[in-house]
Design a protein that fits this description.
It is built from 4 helices and 9 strands. The chain is of the alpha+beta class and about 180 residues long. The strands form 2 sheets. Strands 1-3-4-5-6-9-7 form a 7-stranded mixed beta sheet, with helices on both faces. It has a two-stranded antiparallel ribbon with strand order 2-8. Helix 1 packs across helix 2. The chain is globular.
């Protein structure tokens, strides 16, 4: 059996927007997301992101969207945004059928290197829906800590989805780099 080509990373460009929206949606929403373990389909209906949001993340002066590919195939992405001495990590998505094989760990490690070595960030921060205990546990195994800092879910703003329950909120996680 031949080895698969190496994973490569690059900065996303405007032409990537449709493929990135499709990737993010497939990883979190709808029936397709149930092939992986990061689905939010039991918590939220509707969209996870849209073309405008992804385009803004790509074009933003204080951030970057990183794309992970193998042999030209888009497999994963994440967003990094400078926030003072910290970097925010978001829009983390791995194709559902590729989850569980170490790809997410590789993308997270690359994002940490970029934040630390290229930006000089001392900490990586993110927000996770607090009800996603399995996902929070995955991040804790990778060195993130729960901060106990919560923010409300944007109920009524369908750009972020249509909640299936009334108690959703975000928790901030942080990791020293």
């Amino acid at each position: 059996m031949s080895e698969s080509p190496e994973l490569s990373f690059r900065k996303a460009v405007a032409d990537d927007v449709p493929a990135l929206v499709a990737l993010v949606e497939s990883a979190y929403r709808g029936e397709a997301s149930r092939a992986g373990w990061t689905t939010e389909a039991d918590l939220l209906d509707g969209q996870r992101t849209d073309a405008n949001g992804v385009a803004e993340a790509i074009a933003g002066p204080d951030g970057v969207v990183l794309v992970a590919e193998r042999a030209g195939e888009l497999l994963a992405c994440c967003q990094l945004e400078r926030r003072g001495a910290a970097a925010y990590f978001g829009m983390f998505s791995v194709r559902p059928e590729r989850q569980g094989g170490g790809l997410g760990r590789a993308v997270l490690a690359h994002a940490e290197r970029v934040a630390r070595e290229e930006w000089g960030a001392a900490e990586l921060e993110m927000t996770v829906i607090a009800q996603r205990e399995d996902l929070i546990a995955w991040y804790e195994r990778r060195g993130f800590r729960r901060t106990g800092v919560y923010s409300p879910f944007p109920y009524g703003d369908e750009r972020f989805g249509i909640p299936r329950r009334p108690d959703l909120r975000f928790e901030k996680l942080a990791k020293l780099l």
